[in-house]
């Protein structure tokens, strides 16, 4: 059965007992998912997938809106000018060449370049207007998400690293002494982080201890012992204090013995009585040495990447340099397949380098296959190795959370794909024989203006190939399907696959890359925008379906990806304007050049305004919101229960796979008026 492949999220919320009767309707393709994905309101998407899912879909919606405007301007204004640019009569559309639809077909000094300049202004102003409204809307949604979310352990917790070693006392005692001294009024307790090997050993000892106890009591107390293993590692909390003093006279003393034998790392989670106190502690430098007693916002409990917490803080800067150098080396190694791919698009050069292919390439269909479709397929196949490589670099870098690891990988993949898919293809394609000219900075604008329109055909093929491959793969889930079949048929295991979280680190860079390509060619070669409209429309339906049915929400960052998205889209706008500026200069249109320069300046000023106006909302949490939430919890008498739940919030090892699907919020004893209208259900904060 493939229920877990295509309905993983839904099945994770229902009873595991399912009927396995054969039903023919399950094998009949049904288009009903399209209607369901289209009609689902955004509020339901927010409740199911969280704010991150809404942000991702907003990227696609923004692309649909802006490229609808670009398509209208391109078809009715730019495309006719390009097609009749050489002032010659066209009897029919030339099927063998698409260059007549690009700005390269416009003659030098043409007065009709004002049409391209006007389209550039309309697209740029529309994009800035849409970006402003999106940034404002998502910022307000983030504030509402924080204000109305259930009590979360991370709001009361701070991660402390680089605790100085002392031969006289343990890390736990040192931390307790320091925080009682400087945060005595608000300090609640702490949870030490242990080496991973030590935790595994403690788990083994605890399981042996359980076997020594009668089976009836094991069933009653097993969860208590497991919770104690991870939660009572600090003297500040004693989870078994409310339980009977012993279980056959052995449990409490044995637990303390295990805790005392554990090997501490210079890292810990420190808990505070209020959210505001935790926020202050996370932003204040505790010591005169910035490399010791380093405080950061704590990740959500199931989002913690425990193995990286034991990395010495002094190594992090070196690890970042090493991963940066490794990424640069990988980027240069990737030039080999990219250059090979672009060599296939150059027919004359290919026949010159490989004479035995001349006879084969004379065939029309073989020529179109080798120089048109094949390069995009080869490049797409090579790009599949990029996400796991960048994810590995993000782990080496030392991310303290799984969501932070994915965001780091997302940034690396985004920069990598924009450079290798666009810039390297541009330089190694039409300028393959003129690389020496790039050594002179003055020649770069000229070469860029010549290269970009010349590569329009390749990028149209890439958009078509990449879009079809990515959406069909996302919808069919071939790798997960094969793995599920292998487990059931070969390994004879039950269909108990754990649903995956949404792969933001791969899908966000893909969508932004196609948007970047669309901006660049929206004025230079408008035909590519039509393909992008089809892709984004299908992507909107496919991704909504996947969020509703397939993926689960393992963590919630509150839309932290949007600032990166905004900066990338603004960079796409600026580079579109600069490229058009270079092309206008190459076409000897001084008026178009003079009108484009202010547009670049205004776009940069718009980006700076948005950075000053909205970015602080994503960087820090307002003190007003935190204090109001604390006051609300104190008035409703929930604070005491929240403090008790903090004792068992951060478990260093997941003892059961089911824990991955448990919500990470703290318990809420009694509902209050402010609980009404909270955004979505309790989020699943699994790792």
TrEMBL record:
Domain CSC1/OSCA1-like cytosolic: start-end pairs: 155-308
Instruction: Give the principal location in a single coarse category.
Output: membrane
Q: From the Swiss-Prot or TrEMBL record, give the protein name.
A: CSC1-like protein RXW8
Record membrane topology: Multi-pass membrane protein
Q: Which UniProt keywords apply?
A: Calcium, Ion channel, Ion transport, Membrane, Transmembrane, Transmembrane helix, Transport
Q: Name one GO molecular function term.
A: calcium-activated cation channel activity
Q: What is a single Pfam family found in this protein's UniProt entry?
A: PHM7_cyt
Q: Where is the composition biased (Basic and acidic residues)?
A: 673-687
| Keyword Lyase attached | no
Q: Does the UniProt entry include the keyword Lipid metabolism? A: no
Q: Where is this region: Disordered?
A: 656-687
């Amino acid at each position: 059965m493939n229920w877990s492949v295509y309905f993983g999220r839904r099945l994770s919320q229902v009873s595991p007992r399912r009927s396995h009767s054969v039903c023919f309707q399950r094998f009949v393709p049904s288009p009903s998912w399209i209607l369901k994905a289209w009609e689902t309101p955004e509020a339901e998407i927010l409740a199911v997938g969280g704010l991150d899912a809404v942000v991702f879909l907003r990227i696609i919606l923004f692309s649909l809106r802006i490229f609808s405007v670009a398509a209208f301007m391109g078809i009715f204004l730019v495309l006719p000018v390009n097609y009749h640019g050489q002032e010659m009569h066209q009897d029919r559309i030339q099927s063998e060449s698409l260059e007549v639809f690009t700005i390269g077909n416009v003659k030098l000094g043409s007065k009709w370049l004002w049409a391209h300049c006007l389209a550039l202004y309309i697209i740029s102003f529309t994009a800035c207007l849409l970006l402003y409204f999106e940034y404002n809307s998502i910022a307000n949604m983030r504030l509402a998400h924080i204000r109305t979310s259930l009590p979360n352990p991370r709001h009361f917790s701070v991660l402390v690293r680089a605790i100085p070693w002392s031969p006289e006392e343990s890390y736990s005692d040192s931390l307790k002494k320091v925080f009682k001294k400087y945060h005595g009024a608000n300090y609640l307790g702490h949870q030490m982080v242990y080496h991973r090997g030590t935790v595994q050993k403690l788990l083994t000892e605890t399981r042996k201890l359980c076997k020594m106890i009668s089976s009836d009591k094991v069933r009653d107390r097993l969860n208590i012992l497991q919770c104690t293993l991870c939660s009572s590692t600090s003297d500040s909390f004693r989870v078994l204090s409310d339980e009977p003093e012993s279980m056959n006279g052995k449990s409490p003393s044995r637990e303390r013995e295990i805790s005392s034998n554990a090997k501490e790392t210079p890292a810990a989670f420190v808990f505070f009585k209020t959210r505001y106190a935790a926020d202050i502690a996370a932003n204040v430098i505790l010591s005169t040495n910035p490399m010791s007693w380093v405080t950061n916002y704590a990740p959500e409990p199931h989002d913690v990447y425990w193995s990286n917490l034991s990395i010495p803080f002094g190594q992090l800067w070196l690890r970042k340099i090493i991963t940066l150098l490794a990424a640069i080396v990988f980027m240069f190694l990737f030039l080999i397949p990219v250059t090979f791919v672009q060599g296939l698009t150059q027919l004359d050069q290919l026949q010159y380098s490989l004479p035995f292919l001349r006879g084969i390439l004379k065939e029309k269909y073989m020529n179109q296959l080798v120089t048109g479709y094949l390069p995009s397929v080869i490049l797409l196949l090579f790009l599949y190795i990029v996400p796991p490589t960048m994810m590995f670099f993000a782990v080496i870098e030392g991310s303290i959370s799984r969501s932070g690891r994915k965001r780091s990988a997302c940034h690396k993949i985004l920069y990598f794909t924009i450079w290798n898919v666009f810039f390297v293809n541009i330089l190694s394609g039409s300028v393959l024989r003129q690389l020496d000219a790039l050594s002179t900075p003055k020649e770069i604008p000229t070469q860029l203006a010549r290269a970009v329109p010349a590569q329009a055909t390749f990028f149209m093929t890439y958009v078509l190939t990449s879009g079809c491959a990515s959406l069909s793969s996302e919808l069919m889930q071939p790798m997960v399907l094969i793995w599920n079949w292998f487990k059931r048929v070969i390994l004879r295991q039950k269909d108990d696959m754990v649903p995956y979280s949404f792969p933001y680190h791969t899908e966000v860079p893909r969508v932004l890359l196609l948007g970047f390509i669309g901006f660049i060619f929206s004025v230079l070669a408008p035909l590519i925008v039509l393909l992008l409209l089809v892709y984004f429309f299908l992507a909107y339906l496919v991704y909504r379906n996947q969020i509703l049915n397939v993926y689960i929400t393992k963590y919630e960052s509150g839309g932290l990806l949007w600032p990166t998205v905004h900066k990338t889209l603004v960079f796409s706008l600026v580079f579109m304007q600069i490229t058009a500026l270079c092309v206008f200069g190459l076409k000897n249109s001084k008026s178009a050049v003079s009108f484009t320069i202010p547009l670049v300046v205004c776009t940069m000023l718009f980006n700076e305004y948005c950075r000053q106006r909205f970015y602080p909302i994503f960087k820090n949490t307002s003190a007003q919101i935190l204090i109001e939430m604390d006051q609300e919890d104190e008035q409703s008498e929930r604070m005491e229960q929240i403090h008790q739940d903090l004792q068992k919030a951060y478990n260093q090892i997941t003892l059961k796979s089911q824990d991955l699907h448990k919500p990470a919020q703290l318990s809420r004893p009694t509902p209050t008026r402010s609980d009404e209208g909270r955004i979505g259900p309790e989020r699943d904060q699994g790792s």
